[in-house]
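WARN no homologs supplied; continuing
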Amino acid sequence: SIEPPPPAPAGGGAGQHYGGDLFTEVGRYARFVRWLARRESFDVIHAHDWMTFPAGIAASAISRKPLVIHVHSTEFDRSGIHVHQRIYDIERHGMHFATKIICVSFLTKNIVTSRYAVPEVKVQVVYNAIDINGPAPKGSPPAIRRDEKIVLFLGRITMQKGPEYFLQAARKVLSVMDNVRFVMAGSGDLIRKSIEMAAEMGIGHKVLFTGFLRGEDVNRVFKMADLYVMPSVSEPFGIAPLEAMSHDVPVIISKQSGVAEVLTHVLKVDFWDVDEMANKIIAVLRHPPLQATLRQHGNIEVRKLTWHDSARHCIDVYQSAIDASRGTARACGGA
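OK structure emitted
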């Protein structure tokens, strides 16, 4: 008789929270992939982040094919010092089981080697990119007074993304410039706290919370922005600054980000240095020549970061994993 497949994982529902059914779904997905690996032919397994690591391990154990894991973020990035032990254990097991590890930046590679005790030789850095051939923005930007300068935060409103530092810098900017509005586009577990924080600071009327945006709404918000700020506490890479630059928006980014390793025509600041962050915001808003330089050179720079190059580097890692796996098999007397 033909063995039926195990139930596929349920779609959605887990949200951003650890708990509930999430670990059950991770286990269910691993069982489904193990079943699939017995029936499919492939040369290498590529698993992305901790929720797929158990599935990748299961597929590799069944097929004896090399596992490459791709680390887009770690539990230290997401949770700081309040690490979820079970997630950390899954991450660490996956990293040590894998033949090769791809990290999205040297920042992430350093975390993987230092916090998870992974040999540096196993880890390769492959930077992210963006699709610059996406659809052009349509329609008009939201109705905000055009005598106001717009400073944009776009991302999840969570500890990792540093929304409180953005608001602290906003207060300092508004003490000097009144014709500025700060837009926080995104959702997350700190959105209510951020709204309350803006109100307590007395700048609530100058901060617009849009909620989660996608598609054309993201294009529109970039179109209306005079400046994009990414104040992340720990950002493994950070694609949003690339998107901003592709829309000709000047960019300020946290030095504690992977994307800071590859970008030159941006302003960089320590996430915690809200005085310097505010100074840089004011400098960009008040000096059109600086805006023009960041726009022009930033747009040229971002076009050099392509997914084609990222894919080529991933293929190189696949080949090195296959070669390493064959070498191990020969050493052990395998086929």
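DSSP finds twelve helices and ten strands in the chain.
OK
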